[in-house]
Every structure is written in structure tokens, then in C-alpha cells.
Design brief:
Helix content is 48%, strand content 15%. The protein is an alpha+beta fold. Among the domains are: 130 residues, no CATH class; 89 residues. Strands 1, 2, 3, 4, 5, 6, 7, 8, 9, 10, 11 and 12 form a twelve-stranded mixed β-sheet that branches. Helix 4 runs parallel beside helix 9. The chain is elongated and about 95 Å long. It starts with a helix and ends in a 19-residue tail after the last helix.
Length: 585
């Protein structure tokens, strides 16, 4: 992987990155960070102190004021409150209003619990923190997801209802052990109080029975409030999709200013949203995943309007408390995002073929030349056509084969895949259909437009039972047909961390780079890292770097998880599942 110094050398320094002393507009103010850290420290202290042995004399002093079960419940609740405060720290740092509301309520509850446990010093600390939260309340303004509010309410209500029913049944089954005369109304009161950690009016002949009822109700009460709080603070999201007027304007930008980024057309995916610059001459396409607003590729439109579009996107991130990140931008895009304070690391390289210079002659192209010749001798032929020029029956057959040839049930891709096939709106795409000698469709490629004179590979599918060489035949057929189509450059697959393998093969490669390459080869079986590099390199392409932009090192893990989820390499509730495989007619 390229070092940070080398990466910055590869990114032109036209406008300069935000100074380290100047806080970027999306970064949390220092005061908010301090408050978040204090909340986490106090929460950790409460959680640890709650499990420490209590002083015997203090327990004896409170015995006549509160039953032992009540004090044990207070200790448990204090531990839970402490853990929740630690959990809330991340939301407070991002300025979440709901995180502030919960933290304020929990601090007030912590004061009460410490008083119940007769621990005055922690009570004073919790009270001081409560005062700080109230004074700094205006710093926490990020909006939450309305849907999370209702989910939290339903989950909390579900746990509380289940606990109430179980506790009521438990009391009813042991009603013969009750001391005195108590009816169902007293049972319900006892159960309801037990769910908030207070001993009810019922007394049992055996203390163990009363403790069992209190543990049942108290456990469900804690589970209800904890689950509700966690769901309430889940990172928000946003319904993906364009407004009615967005798609035509995006297509216009791609036609007029799309030559700078081969990934521009993928902004038209149905699971992405668009934020426009005020002039609507530039836009950022993105998707919100687990609290990360993940943009893909360069901003769309004219470069001079990019700063306005990026500013609007970052303002939206700040308003909702989302972490901004960019997946797969090129050098120009990385430079634009870097000027707003985002850092950048090199992800890998994109393989681009210059169609005018491409030839199958020469020793370096021997592997491709032999594969193409072998496929042609076996009777395979390729048809290069626009989808709009195919009849409905042929297009439907190609769509069925695209599903049948897919490996796995999930349609992968986000930044470099369209994840649809045969849509009438994509009539300007280019298809390469490979048939065997009997006329059966055995492989297909789909390229999306790249500006006015380029193509970007979107879909590559082949029948695993077909002869070797049909993939090379399809790519070469597309490149050979390019001059008649007015296509000057063709973008192939993206090679992750290509520079690592390339450097490891060079004379004098050091032990670190060789060890890094060996580690990547070990995981290549899962993610095809090295095989994609080899598959691209044999066409002798030009390599263009692609970058991942993120706010800071502390956010890199969250951004990485979001990126892998977007590309469907990690489980995600929004992963695209296509129809089950059927026969390829």
C-alpha cells in the first residue's frame, strides 16, 4: 500500500487541505468532545463501582429504610446506567439530541440511585455532570430518525408487557404463599413496582419466593428500558431515491461533464440519494449506512461547483450527526474532498484501456491472444449491441442468463456497479453477448456510459460450464468495436491494493511489502483481490488510483464496516437480493 507521503504526492495540492489548527466544519467542537468524554468516564466509574462489595455497615444502616432486594436492584440499575452512559458517549460526540436527552435523564437517575445506595461522592459527581449537560444543551442539535423512536417505543413496551404478564402469572401461581389478604389489583401493583426496582406491597411466606418475583419483573424492566434506549440511539438512515426532477438533471450532468469519472453513471443506482449544490450544477451521490453518509466516486457536474455540493453534503451530515466518507473517488475528487478536511488513503487502482492504442500483438499480450483464439476456434461469437436495439424477447433471455450466471444470492456492488439489467432508462449502455456454436448465450458483459466517449464495465457474467477464454473474447470484442462507437477509453474492474502486488514483484522489494502481499494472497480466496489484479493486468491497461476519504483515524473502522456493507460483503438489511436462478433459455 502506498505510504501517506506518496499518496499526498499523487493528489494535486491545488487548494490545500484544511489546516490542522483550523477545525473542519463537520468536526465536533472541542467542548462537545469534552462533555462526551466526561459522560463516558462517569459511566464507566458507575459501572465498576456498582459491582464492588458494599460496606457492611452501610447496608445495615439502610436495612430499615429499604428492603435488601431494593438495594440490590439499585446497584444493578446503577451498573446498567453506567454502561448506557458509556454507550451514549459516541452519540454525544456527534451532537445527537436524543443522546443528550437520554444522558441527562440517566444522570438524574444516577443521582437518585447513588443516594439510595448511600454513596454521596458519586452522587455529587453525577449531579455536577447533570449540570454540565444542562448548561451545554445547545451544542447537541443533530436530529434523530423518527422511525427509531417508534421502534424503541414498541420494543420497550413489548418487554414491559411480557415482564408484567410473567410476573403476574408468577404471583398468581404462588398466591397461597402470600401473607394477608391481597387481590389481583395488589398483585398488579406489586408487579408494576417491581419492574422499576421498587418492592411492592405483597409479602410471601418464604423470602426466596419474593426475591424470585422481583428478579423476574426487574430483569424485564431493565431489558425493556435498555433495549429501548439502544434502539432510540441507533444511527439514523434515509430513504434512498431521487426526487422526480433529479434523475433527468443527473443524466444531463453525466452527459455534459461526466468524462472526468468513470463511476459517475453509478450515481443512478436506486439505493442512492442526491444532494445538490445551490446552483444545481454539481451534486454528491451518497447512501446512509449505520450512521455513515457514504458518498461514491467524484461529485457530479462541473468541477468549479463541486465545493458547493460538498458543503451541502457535509452540512447534511452535521445536521443529522452522520459521519462523512467517500468510497472510490479518483485523484481530482480526492483533492476536492481533502480541501474540506477529509483524509484519504489509496484503495487500489482502476484499469483503463486506451482503445486507440490497444492491440493483441506482442509478447505481453500473448496470454490474451491465445485465450481469444481458443474461444473463437471453439465456435464462440460475440454480439456488441445497445440494449435499446434488442427486442424484448432477446433482452429478457439475457436478463435470465445474467441471474443464472451469478454466483451467490446477493447482488454485490455500490460504487462500481449499477445492480440492474435491462432497464429501459439504461438504453445507452453497451452489451456484449457471447454465444456458443449452438447459439446458446454463455456469457455477457454490460458497460455503462462514461461521459461522451467512454465505457465503464458494470456487469461480467459467464456460464461456469463454458470453455475458458470467453471472458477475454468478450472484452476484446468490446474494445475492437469501440472505434465505430466513438469510444476512446474503456474502464475495467477495480484492483484493490494493486500497488502491493506490483511492488512485491519488483526487484529489491523489501520484507514488509512482501509480507503484506503474502497476507493479501491469503484472503484473496474470499475477496478475489489478487485474481482481479491479474485478470486486469493482462490487458496492459493504464492504472488510475482510487481513494477512500474519511474524517479521522478513529472513524476508519466505522467507515470500513459501512463500505463493506454497502458493497454487500457484510450482512446488511438492505442488501440487494435478486430473483432465484432459473434456467437460461
Amino acid at each position: 500500500m502506498a505510504t501517506a507521503v506518496e499518496q499526498r504526492q499523487r493528489v494535486p495540492q491545488g487548494g490545500g487541505k484544511t489546516s490542522s489548527r483550523e477545525r473542519a466544519p463537520w468536526q465536533p467542537p472541542p467542548a462537545r468532545v469534552v462533555v462526551a468524554r466526561c459522560v463516558q468516564v462517569v459511566g464507566a466509574f458507575d459501572a465498576v463501582a456498582a459491582v464492588l462489595p458494599s460496606w457492611h455497615n452501610r447496608m445495615a444502616t439502610l436495612a430499615h429504610m429499604m428492603p435488601t432486594a431494593g438495594m440490590l436492584t439499585a446497584r444493578t440499575a446503577t451498573a446498567v446506567v453506567g454502561l448506557l452512559l458509556v454507550y451514549l458517549g459516541a452519540g454525544l460526540r456527534r451532537g445527537k439530541r436524543r443522546a443528550w436527552q437520554l444522558a441527562t435523564g440517566l444522570c438524574a437517575l444516577s443521582v437518585v440511585l447513588h443516594i439510595v445506595k448511600a454513596t454521596p461522592a458519586p452522587a455529587v459527581v453525577a449531579a455536577a455532570l447533570l449540570g454540565v449537560l444542562i448548561v451545554e444543551r445547545d451544542r447537541f442539535h443533530a436530529r434523530g430518525d423518527v422511525r427509531n423512536r417508534w421502534r424503541a417505543l414498541w420494543v420497550c413496551a413489548g418487554f414491559l408487557a411480557a415482564g408484567f404478564v410473567l410476573g403476574f402469572v408468577e404471583v398468581a401461581l404462588r398466591s397461597r404463599q402470600l401473607i394477608g389478604d391481597a387481590g389481583p389489583l395488589a398483585w398488579a401493583q406489586h408487579v408494576a413496582l417491581g419492574m422499576i426496582g421498587i418492592t411492592g406491597p405483597l409479602e410471601f411466606e418464604h423470602p426466596v419466593t419474593g426475591t424470585a418475583v422481583e428478579l423476574t419483573t426487574g430483569t424485564f424492566g431493565l431489558l425493556g428500558f435498555v433495549a429501548g434506549a439502544v434502539l432510540l440511539l441507533r444511527p439514523g438512515t434515509r430513504h434512498a431515491g431521487f426526487q422526480a426532477e433529479d434523475e433527468p438533471q443527473v443524466r444531463t450532468l453525466l452527459t455534459q461533464h461526466g468524462e472526468g469519472d468513470s463511476l459517475g453513471y453509478f450515481a443512478l443506482r436506486s439505493d442512492k440519494s442526491i444532494i445538490w449544490a445551490p446552483s444545481r450544477r454539481a451534486a454528491v451521490s451518497y447512501r446512509v449506512i449505520n450512521g455513515v453518509s457514504l458518498a461514491s466516486g467524484n461529485p457530479l457536474g462541473i468541477a468549479s461547483a463541486w465545493p458547493d455540493a460538498i458543503s451541502a453534503w457535509l452540512a447534511d451530515c452535521r445536521e443529522h450527526g452522520w459521519t462523512p466518507a467517500v468510497l472510490g473517488c479518483n485523484t481530482a475528487g480526492g483533492t476536492a474532498y481533502q480541501r474540506f478536511g477529509l483524509d484519504a488513503i489509496e484503495l487500489g487502482d482502476e484499469a483503463i484501456i486506451d482503445t486507440a492504442a490497444f492491440t493483441l500483438e506482442g509478447r505481453s499480450m500473448r496470454t490474451v491472444r491465445q485465450a481469444v483464439g481458443r474461444a473463437r476456434r471453439a465456435g464462440y461469437t460475440c454480439q456488441v449491441v445497445r440494449p435499446r436495439d434488442l427486442d424484448d424477447e432477446t433482452l429478457e433471455r439475457a436478463r435470465q442468463c445474467a441471474v443464472a450466471f451469478r454466483q451467490g444470492s446477493v447482488e454485490r456492488g455500490f460504487s462500481m456497479a449499477l445492480s440492474r439489467f435491462g432497464d429501459p432508462a439504461d438504453g445507452d449502455c453497451l452489451l456484449v453477448l457471447c454465444h456458443d456454436g449452438e447459439g446458446r448465450l454463455r456469457g455477457l458483459l454490460q458497460f455503462v456510459p462514461w461521459g461522451g466517449n467512454g465505457l465503464s464495465l458494470d456487469l461480467m457474467r459467464a456460464d461456469r460450464g463454458a470453455d475458458n477464454g470467453i471472458t477475454e473474447l468478450m472484452i476484446v470484442s468490446a474494445v475492437e468495436a469501440a472505434p465505430e462507437l466513438g469510444v476512446k477509453q474503456v474502464s475495467l474492474n477495480f484492483a484493490v491494493l494493486r500497488s502491493v502486488f506490483a511492488r512485491a514483484e519488483q526487484l529489491g522489494a523489501g520484507p514488509v511489502i512482501r509480507l503484506w502481499a503474502r497476507a493479501l494472497r491469503a484472503v484473496s480466496g474470499l475477496w478475489q483481490i489478487e485474481s482481479l489484479y491479474r485478470a486486469n493486468a493482462k490487458y496492459q491497461p493504464c492504472w488510475q488510483p482510487r481513494f477512500l476519504c474519511f474524517p479521522s483515524a478513529r472513524d476508519l473502522s466505522r467507515v470500513t464496516v459501512a463500505a463493506l456493507s454497502a458493497e454487500a460483503f457484510l450482512p446488511s438489511g438492505r442488501a440487494r437480493r435478486t430473483p432465484e436462478r432459473g434456467p437460461c433459455a
